Amino acid sequence: MQQGQLCPECSEWDVKDWFLGRAWILWEKPNRSKARDERFQAGDKTKRRRNNKNRRLLRDVKGNEDCPLCRLTIKALSKDPAYGQIPEGIDVEVLYAQLAFFLRCDELGSGKTVESVIGLGAPKYCNRLLVSTSEWDRDGCHPYPVATGSFHLITSTTDGQHDVQEPILRGRAVRSQVDMKLLESWVRRCHEDHEVQCRPEPRDEHLRLDFKLIDVNSGAVVHSSVRASFAALSYVWGPQSVRQVELSSDTYSLLTTRGLSEIWEDVPQTIRDAIALCRSIGIPYLWADQCCIQQDDETDIGQVEYMDVIYGAASLTIVAASGTDSWAGLPGVSPGSRQVQQEMEVIEGLSIGTAQAKYSAAMSSAIWLTRGWTFQEYILSKRILIFTAQQVFYQCSNAFWWEDTHMEVPNPLTVRLDGLHELYRSGPSTIPSRAIDMGIIKKPAIGSLTPENYLEKYLSLAAKFTDRRLTRQSDALRAFKGIISYFSRATEECFFAGLPLSGIHAALLFAISHPKPQHRRKEFPSWSWTGWDSSRLDGDYIGYEFCEWEPEAALYRIEHTSDINVAESVQFTRIQDRRMSTLSRESYTPRSLWKLSIRKDLLKDLGVDNLLAVLAPTPNIVITGTPGVGKTSHAELLARNTGLKHLSINQVVKERDCNDGWDEEFKTWIVDEDKLLDAIEDEVQEGGCIIDWHACDLFPKRWIDLVVVIRCDSTTLYDRLTARGYAEKKLEENMDAEIMEVLLEEARESYDEEIVVELRSDNAEDIENNVERIEVWIKNWKENNRADGEA
Ligand SMILES: Nc1ncnc2c1ncn2[C@@H]1O[C@H](COP(=O)(O)OP(=O)(O)O)[C@@H](O)[C@H]1O
Fold first, then answer.
1. Which of 231-240, 299-308, 606-615 has the lowest mean pLDDT?
2. Which of 19, 257, 265, 531 is the most exposed place for a label (fewest CB within 10 A)?
């Protein structure tokens, strides 16, 4: 066989048709017959293909090293780490499929064609072939790792000038050096075509800081004019041992006069490359934190609070996503900095090459994605150029472009591309869906904030942020400060320890999964997400429905209004819903007050002297009754449904050493009442206890908000107590007590009559109904006892 000629099996296929065949589906407004025709056409093709056997034994493909399609297949598959895990000599197959897209286009109609709406680049042709190994061998008895890859029809144009002429999805050659014209065209295209959410924010409004930039032509650190266009760099510094260049009082005069070129050897590669990149694509200034914030100047360091302004105002954010520190550089900017493994073959006159790693694969090991500081840099930026080892990606709120594929359509707002699984199900049947996903990921934008949505948006960002790693745990708040500033400017919300005060009731409700002492960030309060180390926050923090919950805690500002008699003059002003109300002194009891350990500097942030949080009080309930009536059954269900604490006095007496020994005759513990009250006092004072005990008169009246006396039919009770194996004497005594209503009487004598309720418990349904009744009562009680009574 001649070099470059297809093997007999591959030549049976119409390779040209694979790449150039119409293989996309259109979704349009209903009743557009032309579009429907197109869809049918696509369907027809699919049907025809299904009958083709686009599959080969991997073993055979591997053996055909002289066949360019077989060679490409193996090269494309071997880019996937799973390929190396497929054992030799087994009968797995290689499946071939066209890449098809589901193209949504809302603007068809009034004589418009797809081509006229999305331009010449309409995806008429498939342009890309997917390959995948099958999960099962031919016998279907053993699953194997699945390797996937793809190759595409490559055009020679790479400079971004003519890509409108190219059909989307056609491949582009990726060379060892990045085509700067392409990168420049992305920024320009976004600037010209995209809507306002991609535009940099004006800088002059907010930036009252001493803002410095690197002049990329002279290398000097300069105070720029507010209108200068600049790129911001987002990268990881790496461990402390890594050499960095620092703007400090020592280097200040050198860097601001003669510039970085004087100490070029010390300038990390990533910063050098970013400077070169800016120069090539015509951005005059670069912002890189280590050169633009004076590291030993407190005022300058304060700029970390304005990351929203800096990244929001940048014309472009350059992301160094490969490597582990600031010396990793931007692959493809300096000569020899990128090794491209794009294999090319000419098959039937078509230039075909393997595709580079898609976004998710290229970013799978990116440390940049895992670091705390880079989170806000990503979220707050408008346009991002991401440098990975394989290729460069461009992300904004309207587009996602990458080096090896033409995706730049002139009217991006009207086009959405989604991988279409259905087509593959009807086509070569077992192409795994992950081979289809091209990973089109638009940059998340915070978007417009309204009183209704900002809380949910903020909390969801906080939850995502906690997945990120920080070298210094004390940076937990500072690394998020830009996002906080953004929200507080847009909504006038006050933030405290990372919690939005108006939504404090939702913000306090986060869940930490499996917290351990080592996960606590001691610098921050435990009741804030900032107080916990990475990835401990439950993803469901995002509590839209939480916002509708009754606040469980309120924050109060403590004000000393007079110094004559401090005790009398303390005022508590509630900070919630920006409604100022005061808390009466009576509410200021240990029962309702939860003092927060709040750091002075955090308080300064808020401009307040002192704060305390008051938990909305929860009631204490006694569940009493003769043994066997069902107290424990009620208390347990009630605790489960309400989250209140079940305090079984039986257990307390036994476990907390509150007894005077065991009464053999009555087969029960002899209770030392004083010890018992001491043992439970703190808990009960906090509120929210369900006290389960067959006596109630020993609990001080002020502790108790509701007394539930459970009753039951005497024959039923007799059966239950006999089943428990009660001694004759004990059984008799209890039966008498129930019949004589001893406990009901005791409850009525010890507490105000209106808080004593009698409930029957003869069958299982009674328990549920009773508990439901108590729940309603708790809700009403909370409503009437909210800690915002007027002083
Ligand atoms: N309403 C009821 N219907 C049916 N069985 C009940 C009911 N209440 C209690 N029981 C049963 O009676 C026994 C005693 O109940 P328990 O809750 O331990 O009572 P106490 O705590 O008052 O001694 C348990 O076996 C329980 O399942």
1. 606-615
2. 265
